[in-house]
Amino acid sequence: MNFKYVIVGAGLAGLTVAERIANVLGEKVLIIEKRNHIGGNIYDSYNEEGILIHNYGPHIFHTNDKGVYDYLSKFTKWNDFWHRVLTYVDGNLIPMPITVETINKLYNLNLDCSEVEEYLKKQAVDIKEIKTSKDVALSKVGKDIYEKIFETYTKKQWGIDPSELDTSVISRIPIRLNRDTRYFNDKYQGMPTHGYTKMCERMAANKNIKIMLNTDYKEVIGDINYDTLIYTGATDEFYDYKHGKLSYRSVNFVFETHDKEQYQEAPVVNYPNDYDYTRITEYKQLTGQQNGKTTIGKEFPCAEGEPYYPFPTKECKAQFALYEEEAKKETKVVFIGRLAEYRYYNMDAVVRRALDAFDTLYQGK
Ligand code: FAD
Ligand code: UDP
Hints:
By secondary structure, this protein is of the alpha/beta class. Helix content is 34%, strand content 19%. It starts with a strand and ends with a helix. Uridine-5'-diphosphate is lined by residues 87, 96, 149-150, 153-154, 157, 169-170, 172-173, 270, 272.
């Protein structure tokens, strides 16, 4: 079989590059995908009650990158969802991320914005060199809030102490000295009106894009002649684990359908200190779907299973660097995406990476 372009993986990274090759270059491209569907981890589907759920965990699109927003908007419209999260601490549901409302509710106070700034300054631990996620939290909010909101959640989520995690993990959570309780700051937010799978189907709707599902690329790649392989699978697997297996954190998503309109007070409720799960998502609150019943998803983090979260530790980064060195030497293979680059990419960042890689490779930009 001859294909100038072959892509491994039909996730957001693979589909973006495929779409560009098919529509901009007008060339044929083959995508090889080991799962039985396209979309990678953003895949969503209707359950037996007809409720749209995210099979691989809750996905909320948010970005400040207008180019990415405009690009994806060619394949979907968006609802006007603004994500909100509550966290269950000391028997109360309080807003996440940390805002003026959070501090007031947590400590039964009535401070204004500048008083909260003062309050947090007093709590903050003076750390000379911020090296870990624990340092990030302690230096911004102090010991008590760290223990109530971050410490146990992070231990549950990652299976290790925040002092062993790179600064990037807890830095994802903004600290706001105002009353804005939206989870994300970004200018563009929303959920695809008809879901992520429909959006992905539209990206792939070009007769130049051929998709081979249910196929590990290693089963067939020896029979295909190609000029370029765009690889969005795991890089350690590509190199037959020659530098050892990279670690990932996995999550077991457990779905429950309840015979009531609404289950909880917010689309997502976090449970930092209670239960074995980290959070519960109520899908209808994300999508705006109407149904007499409601489906929730509980997230139980675990060591084994689908490779969801690359481990942001020093050791894991050093191990991945060995694979990166190998990857740099490849002349016909390009590595893109969450697995291939072993990076905690959000959807918008993966699309940006894929669009830029396409421009560099084929548009001379
Ligand atoms: P993937 O979606 O993992 O796609 C890679 C594809 O390659 C998969 O389909 C896989 O089956 C296939 N593949 C792998 N190996 C092989 C092989 N050997 N042969 C053939 N095919 C192979 N981002 C946000 O912006 N907002 C969110 O709210 C958000 N929530 C998230 C929640 C969770 C629990 C997780 C895990 C991620 C979340 N993300 C979120 C991130 C988002 O999922 C990723 O940015 C995005 O899906 C990455 O796309 P990708 O194509 O790089 O990887
Ligand atoms: N986090 C926390 N408490 C919370 C929410 C998040 O300690 O209530 C930490 C935790 O370490 C998590 C990180 O902040 O992994 C990033 O949170 P985010 O909600 O962005 O996680 P994701 O949606 O990527 O799983």
